[in-house]
Design brief:
Order of helices and strands: EHHEEEEHEHEEHHEEEHEHE
Number of domains: 2
Shape: globular
Largest sheet: 13 strands, mixed
Structural class: alpha+beta
Number of strands: 13
Protein name: N-acetyltransferase domain-containing protein
Helix content: 25-40%
Organism: Poseidonocella sedimentorum
Length: about 325
Amino acid sequence: MTQTIRPATPDDMPRLVELLMLDAQERRAEDAILWKMADDAPAQIEKALTFALTAEQQPFQQFWRVAEDGGQITGVIHAMMLPIPPIYAGPFGEPGLILPDSFVAADAPSGTVDDLLAAAEDALHEAGARIKLASYVVGEIWRTAFEASGYEPLTLYLSRSDLGDQGMPAGVRQATEEDVPGIVARSAENRQVLFEIDPFWEIHPEADPRFSAWMTRSLTLRDRDMMVLGEAEDLRGYIIAQPASRLHFPPAHDIIGTGVIDDYYHHELAKPTALDRGSEASNALLRAAETAFANRGMGAAFVVCPAGWASKIELLESAGYETAMIWSIKR
């Protein structure tokens, strides 16, 4: 019988739980702290699948496709339409994203990965995605398939899981409402660097007021630390240490002990090709975020960094970070 690719159904869930547990165990083998398994991982996977395959109202479009050979499901791929952050213009509309909780059994027929990838791309194209993104953590077969299909690295997710207890660096302080204008100004510089690295990050005309409103609200959220360097009238840099979200971590993993750094910028990082302004202050902000995570009982930090921002990658790698996940783009 010829292998077929089709949409997943609720009847597939027992087998999908098996495959996605194997998938999660591969990630845990890479880093047991970052990809910690939830105590009830199978139940969490089943809960997520039940919602994805049966709920009428969902916050975003998502797609599950399975490969079936001789009545046995041999692989699964998960994709979604990615909402555009409000500070970016998104001139091509919502991109499609292939998520890391995609897996192919060791005994699957040759070509299963490519067939699943093509099916996911077709689903995203039909949903209106003009740009496609793909994410992967482990598995040489997925990296090879994405590269062969024309995907190129867009964003690196670097991690460190030995945060320790080094204390708050001198000069770094918690942000206040008076710091918001300075944070917004530094964020505008950060966004300009991003756009120069890749036009994918085209800036929304109302990015500043939107980011200002979000920063003001973020100051009231007790699950994160917003830290700055410099006085409010001459703010030099900022970093936000916040909890991990499900966008980057499939449901089998316990994310309580993981923090994410996305909003992070200092003048020293303004030149994406080299750290020719030094890195002392940028390192201080990074260590402050790690200390904030450690104080909250977190054991791993996950930093978002464009693949083309060489100076920031150099700083992170010098600080002990290693690439844990890659998002790639196909235009």
